[in-house]
Amino acid sequence: MRTIGWLLVLVYATSLPGSAQKAGDSNPATAVRALEGERVKAEARNDNDALDLILDNAVVYIEAGKVISKGDYLLRVKSAKPQLQQIVLEAMTVRTVENTAIVVGTYRKTDGKDGKSLKRWRFVDTWVNKKGSWMLVAAAATPLAK
Amino acid sequence: MGTSASYAQGDADSDVEAKILATEHMWGQAYVSKDPKALERILDDAFVNIDSDGVVQNKAEAVAEVSTSTIVQFLTESMVVHLHGNTAIVTGIFQLKGVDHGKPFAQRERFVDTWLYKNGQWISIAGLVTRIGP
Question: Which of A62, A100, B61, B80 is 20 to 30 A from B89 in CA distance terms?
Answer without folding.
Answer: B61
